[in-house]
């Protein structure tokens, strides 16, 4: 009996010795912090008799798990020596999301008698918060987009995952800057609130503008007259999303200070610094009237008072809003720095003003105010936004949500201050990027 137990024990040790593993190490992320830009692969081998390890990494163009894959090698190598650890050099990945890693180990240096095999599926992006779209490219200019849309041409359709808080409308054309593809006008063929990890392309926070207004006339001549007698352009706090250096601020404006309608400056406010950090916005304008709207303009002001246009108008930020049919929506996502307004530190309201003409049936729902505090980016007092007593030794710490949206930027002097920043974050998953590394934390 003891002999049998001894044999079983040796057998178990032997199995453990030959256990293998594929690891992804030294990951480098893109600026959105949800998609990998490069990485290395580490192969752990516990079989001392292995003399050769082959690895191949392929870009997989699966649209769904059941399709026949189109495999395009991006890296392959044969290690021809004994080792317990094999590390690849840096492997750069592009905009495709789905990759296959295959490893085969041999006890001889010729390709026969495999000792073990391992496979790993690698997804370049963490797709939490992404939406899947089927998009048709309509051209690089608005004129070509209108022409192609009216001709109902049927070009190649791209299956793309996008990170955007606003859902794009089906059968509408938007101008989008999609990383790896460029700036094009796209017709949305279908939309899903759930991302497809097998889709080839994934991009975080694309620049979205639209949809553009397209009127096709089948009878020749100019476009048909448009009735604009009773429209209602609406901009609500619940349709405005703001991302700033404020760690605890929710992105949706109506949640920042519920039911706030002016008066004493609110406690919760977004942050902007004189050192040039950005405030990113995305908002949705709707025509809830009975007829199409007239083209108008959107302007932005940094004002001392709530919903007041008697402030500093942003330089070169005016947006031309096209005519919207009844029920149509339009997405805008401008980015601001303090240099757009040239104001000193203080408490202000960033006013978004849609300026319709007199035919708009309701002029009380055309603007919103975002509470904003402008602080000096460098200071020595305990209330300074950034700590910077030793500028030469300081470094930037950026905090991102797990879906890749920038929440805050901090200048810290050491790792202790970096940990203090992290300790003040609310509960949730966050990505931290400093001068040397990118890592994930859970509070």
UniProtKB/TrEMBL annotation:
The keyword Signal applies. InterPro entries: CARDB (IPR011635), Ig-like_fold (IPR013783). The keyword Glycoprotein does not apply. Residues 1-19 form the signal peptide. Coiled coil: none annotated. This is CARDB domain-containing protein. Residues 273-368 form the CARDB domain. Transmembrane segments: none annotated. Pfam families: CARDB. It comes from Aquimarina algiphila. Keywords: Signal.
